């Protein structure tokens, strides 16, 4: 799994998830329920991950949607 996006913005998380769902790209949203521990103040970012074989496709999809600046740097 590769991390695509890390953000505190719930609207961005929803947009990315909708794009990935529409494209049929499986993904995970991690740390979604951490608000219970943080007291619902939104300081802990949510992470969106995709399977490594679909990472390039997902990056291209988000870039084409104007969300390229939100992408995490490519890693090893």
Automatic annotation (TrEMBL):
Tell me which SUPFAM superfamilies the record gives.
GlnB-like
Q: Which residues form the DUF2007 domain?
A: 1-65
**Which superkingdom is the protein from?**
Bacteria
Instruction: Write down the Pfam families for this protein, in alphabetical order.
Output: DUF2007
InterPro entries for this protein: DUF2007, N-reg_PII-like_a/b
Protein name, per record: DUF2007 domain-containing protein
């Amino acid at each position: 799994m590769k991390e695509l996006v890390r953000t505190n913005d719930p609207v961005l998380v929803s947009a990315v998830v909708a794009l990935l769902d529409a494209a049929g790209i499986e993904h995970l949203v991690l740390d979604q329920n951490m608000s219970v521990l943080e007291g619902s103040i939104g300081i802990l970012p949510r992470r969106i991950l995709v399977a490594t074989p679909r990472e390039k496709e997902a990056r291209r999809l988000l870039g084409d949607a104007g969300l390229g600046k939100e992408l995490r740097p490519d890693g090893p």
